[in-house]
Amino acid sequence: MKRAAAPARVQAAPGEVRIIGGQWKRTRLPVAHIEGLRPTPDRVRETLFNWLGQDLAGWHCLDAFAGTGALGLEAASRGAASVLLVESEASLVRQLQRLQERLDAGAVRVRRGDGVQALRQSAPGSLDLVFLDPPFGSPALFQQALQAAGPALAPQGWVYLEAPEAWGEDALAALGLAEQRHLRAGAVHAHLLRKI
């Protein structure tokens, strides 16, 4: 007797990732072949949004190194009131703008520029969630981004940091932050941080 096949899970093909929850669930996002572009894996994003909760209604978010836009678009898909995607690479900015239009994502804005500078220009206490996923080959950006995120963060806001190594308690405390959750997935360390 032949067994019925289990329903296939929707998986992204090489060169794409997918939104895993909210109104745009299963929407595929292209991943350009650009050196250093490393989208957050589905499993890590799923864990992150389990930590944060599935409903981000009313949240104000900034994705400082947007890349594919997977993190910021995931937040918008789950009801965030505003999401600013900041990216320095022109071809990725154009791709993000096309995605924003295709999804009719009114809460999403795309800006070409420096993510650290965008954080510094944010009103103090204005952000509920900051995504920091700098290029792993630029270690100085991690410190700069964390320093810039602190003042922009609302009192009960969150910083998501993706890094090639775990950040220690003392290094985070010096920046006024504390780790709430940590996950290692292959070469990626995912941190969920809050103000001390």
Sheet of most strands: 7 strands, mixed
- Reported by name, the CATH topology is Rossmann fold
The helix tally amounts to: 6
Number of domains: 1
Q: How many β strands by DSSP?
A: 9
Walk across the major sheet and give the strand order: 5-4-3-6-7-9-8
Cα(first) to Cα(last) distance is 60 Å
* Corresponding CATH architecture: 3-Layer(aba) Sandwich
Strand content: 25-35%
Query: Structural class given helices, strands, pairing?
Result: alpha/beta
Q: Give the overall pLDDT as a whole number.
A: 86
- Show unreliable segments: 1-14
Large-scale geometry: globular
Question: How big is the Rg?
Answer: 17 Å
Helix content: 25-40%
For the record, the CATH class is Alpha Beta
SSE topology string: EEHEHEHEHEHEHEE
User: CATH superfamily, please?
Assistant: Vaccinia Virus protein VP39
SSE arrangement:
Elements: E1 16-18, E2 28-30, H1 42-52, E3 60-63, H2 70-77, E4 82-87, H3 90-103, E5 108-112, H4 115-121, E6 127-132, H5 139-152, E7 153-163, H6 169-173, E8 177-185, E9 188-195
Parallel strand pairs: 3-4, 3-6, 4-5, 6-7
Antiparallel strand pairs: 1-2, 7-9, 8-9
Compact summary:
This protein is an alpha/beta fold. The protein has six helices and nine strands.
Structure, described:
The chain is of the alpha/beta class and 196 residues long. The protein has a single domain (16-195), classed as Vaccinia Virus protein VP39 (Rossmann fold, 3-Layer(aba) Sandwich). Helices cover 30% and strands 28% of the residues. The chain has six helices and nine strands; from the N terminus they run E-E-H-E-H-E-H-E-H-E-H-E-H-E-E. It has helices at 42-52, 70-77, 90-103, 115-121, 139-152, 169-173; strands spanning 16-18, 28-30, 60-63, 82-87, 108-112, 127-132, 153-163, 177-185, 188-195. The strands form two sheets. A seven-stranded mixed β-sheet has the order 5-4-3-6-7-9-8, sandwiched between helices. Strands 1-2 form a two-stranded antiparallel sheet. The longest helix is centred in the middle third of the chain and has 14 residues, at 90-103. The radius of gyration is 17 Å and the shape is globular. The termini are far apart. The model is unreliable at 1-14 (pLDDT under 50).
